[in-house]
Amino acid sequence: MAKKKTKQTKSEVVDFSKYIRWFWMIFTGGILAIVLLFLLASWGLLGEMPDHTRLENPETNLATEIISSDGETLGKFYFNDNRTPVGYEDLPKNLVEALIATEDIRFYDHSGVDARGTLRAFFKLGRGGGASTISQQLAKQLFTDQVSKNKIERALQKVREWIIAIRLERQYTKEEIIAQYFNIYDFGNNGDGIRSASRIYFGKEPKDLDLKESAMLVGMFKNSALYNPRRNPVGVKNRRNVVLAQMYKYDYIAEDIKDSLQATELDLNYTPESHREGIATYFREYLRGFMKEWANDKKNRKPDGTKYDLYSDGLKVFTTIDSRMQKYAEDAVALHMPRLQAEFDHQNTPDRNPTAPFLELDKSEIDKLLKDGMRRGERWRILKNQGKSNKEIEASFYKPVEMTVFKWIDGKPGEVDTVMKPIDSMRYYKSFLHPSMMSMNPITGHVKAWVGGMNYRHFQYDMVKQGKRQVGSTFKPFVYATAIDQLQVSPCDSFPRTPITIEANKFGNPEPWTTKNSDGNYSGIQTLKDALASSTNTITARLMNEIGPQPVVDMAKSLGVEQDILPVPAIALGTPDISVYEMVAAYSTFANKGVYNKPVMVTRIEDKNGTVLYQVAPESKDVLSEEVAYVAINLMEGVTNAGSGRRLRHSWATKVSVYKEIITGYPYEFTNPIAGKTGTTQNQSDGWFMGMVPNLVTGVWVGAEDRAAHFGSITYGQGASMALPIWALYMKACYEDKTLDVSKGEFEEPEELSINVDCTAIDEGDLGADSDSKDDDEVEIDF
Description:
Blueprint: H1 2-42, H2 52-56, E1 64-67, E2 73-77, H3 93-103, H4 115-123, H5 134-143, H6 151-171, H7 174-184, H8 193-202, H9 211-219, H10 233-249, H11 255-262, H12 281-296, E3 316-319, H13 323-347, H14 363-376, H15 378-385, H16 390-396, E4 401-409, E5 412-420, H17 422-429, E6 433-440, E7 447-451, E8 469-470, H18 476-487, E9 494-496, E10 501-502, E11 513-514, E12 525-527, H19 528-533, H20 537-547, H21 549-558, E13 577-578, H22 580-591, E14 595-597, E15 602-606, E16 612-615, E17 620-622, H23 626-642, E18 655-658, E19 661-664, E20 675-680, E21 686-693, E22 696-704, H24 714-717, H25 719-722, H26 724-736
Parallel strand pairs: 1-3
Antiparallel strand pairs: 1-2, 3-15, 4-5, 6-7, 6-22, 8-13, 9-12, 10-11, 14-17, 15-16, 18-19, 20-21, 21-22
Helix pairs in contact: 1-6, 3-9, 3-10, 5-6, 5-7, 9-10, 10-11, 13-26, 18-20, 18-21, 18-23
């Protein structure tokens, strides 16, 4: 019996060995198949694989970054990808720890593929969590297409990700992989990469993110479309708390910190980054044109001969704009303009002005003005391209439609949804007063602030460089400077205020030209200093009669005025249309001792690797002697000490009646030397103020789109009321910022000064006034 049993056991052993052989054959074949699969994938036979060059330089679209002189990002140029990469050193420790704890706790222990995680996912069929490492997820983001829904294709795609992940681990350090992963991910709302995301959701740089902010952003890696903090704040908060729990689980944070942070809200500081929002929007649009022109120049090509792409090549544009001064300039506009607009609207109600917002126009003239505006507008162009007839297009302007319009709301720029006829919206927009402002260091030529309007989303025409308007009395210093240069006149020289007529045919003038003083006062005499301070027209005309208009035109051209100026005597009172950009550059020549510096906005351009592609070459020229420039400055100091700009010296607050409220004025109380000039054009259509201290020259213009829309009286319509307050509010903010170096000192006097500028011993006589200062004798108005 025992022998028989032994034989059966041997038989059974022989039969089991067959299964073992089959097992090893199948197992070995499986291994070989897997190896073959990986080999085929690595050879690119299962889909394109990146070569060494692509691994070293992944193809990602990088936005062009606009950088201020103080190192802040003003904005970016991009089409789809608002991406600006940062290095690992710029990522806070809590952000990296949140990522490791949530996405790949064994990140520092594997070489691209986590074997333990993969086996766990395989045996649990993915129910225990995914097995993708950070390296694999980076591989998927960089080099694989959208995830396939087909299981076989997805499996093959996973194989490619594994191979690429291993290659990435060989190519880069762990820190570089983490930085790349943060830089490549799309966080939604134009938050491409961690830098854009942290700026958009929290208004700060990545290095400044706190723990709960880091946890929220890491939580978005799961699915940024689903976990969008603007659309799904509850879901995002829950996901953030999961990240905090993971950090506690792996001992990155203590339990009490986890519990306290999980109880907090998201506390977003949503700061969208788009071409029409943010700081310095008008300047950025000017810069876009500058960059396109630069890129189109054949001298500025890539090594391979192709053009740089402004929207994807990751250029860095270093500008002269100071982000602090730009903010102060925009704040000054936002503080003054709604109050000025409130008074303008108060004066232009249908009861007070049936043709509001226009004056001096009848109904037929207004209809013509609006119809001309129709044909120039975007609506007309779009409907014309659709094949509509002129009659059909015009009829559409009289049909109510839903629209969103600009409105000052509680003293801030805002929008309201309404239903309005397009023709009525045109009239509505023509009722707005617009500001423009530029600030420049006269010594370097660097432009520090640029405000082309009050809201780029609704008013895209840039009044700094594109817009040109009559400059009024701000042109008079060019006449005075020419007279000082040619005739060596002194600020203390006296002239009669009596009317003067420049005869016909003199200087090519076809008709006799007689000037008037706005106050009707023609008695007595004035020094040139007092005459400029009060902007006495007859004395300016006397100077013009002595020197002629052509030398004044030549002077203006030398000072940087670009457009043609007709050499007629009337230019003495500021009839030419000139931009704020040109006026600031011209006045800067006086502050810079007679040396003209062409305004500089861009100092250099770098590619994404930091190679310098462009370096500014400053352009300057001698225009005036140092003595003439100083005397002109001395004349303009009289404007702020005793003329139309003297409200800058007020040490007491005033009050102004504005629609439905009393607005307390601002006691500017400037005590430092300031040279400047106000300007007001015919019918108060334009208000100007040009103000200077030794190292900063700033020009401000305020007016409506159409000259027929203006204040009815000089009280509010003069440059000292419309433009000067913006300059004053801006300068006060600059002076209060101790990190800025805006001068409060004297303008430097030349070592050799042969022209007398000390007029203290001379009887000042009858000061008088013109349109710029008449109201100063009647009522003080400060906004």
